[in-house]
Amino acid sequence: METAGHVVDLGCGTGNMTGILKQRFPAADVLGVDGAETMLDKARAAVPNCRFEQADFATWTPAKAAAPDLIFSNAALHWVTNHKTLFPRLLSLLAPHGVLAVQMPSMHDAPFRALQNEIAREGPWSRFLDDAGYARALLPVEAYYDVIRPKVATLDIWQTTYLHVLTGKDAVTEWAAGSSLRPFLDKLPPDQAQGFRAAYSEALRPHYPERPDGTTILPFKRLFLIARI
What we know:
24% strand; alpha/beta; 32% helix
């Protein structure tokens, strides 16, 4: 889209993409929404020319006078459920000719993600962990098409697998520790977190072996969709 008056970054985290959206639409009112106040504090400091709001982005609604021209969500909506109702609801919030642009990791059935849940249920750390922070399974791609296409003028939907070439010991665990493994580790005492990481690393190694040159390849699949009403 060429112009936008109101832009929402849904699940904005620390505001990295919010700032980029402001650069792309400098005249727009850009709002970042996230449930974690600690993330929003960092976002407000990093991107002072945008607004930020603490809210559950699965149920967030805009002010009546500010229907978004663009709802953008990068690597956030896979944390919540009920996508068959969530996506139609988000589309209903848009201004006329508005756009919903979403990217979600599609890794729920890959060892990288599935073993996190499996290891969490085993061992002495299980009593500290529940499913509050787990990324949920996505719908089949065809289901997103069926849910969204009847409600929009155009829909582009695709998947891409990125090959991350990682280095170092237990490189996949180290990579996950800054993203999807964080909700598990943050709930554990230090000694239990260390044990959990070690068990996860051991379970991962057969699936992501170190290559002859010392690197480890992590195939990482992402789902993209752009819908215009």
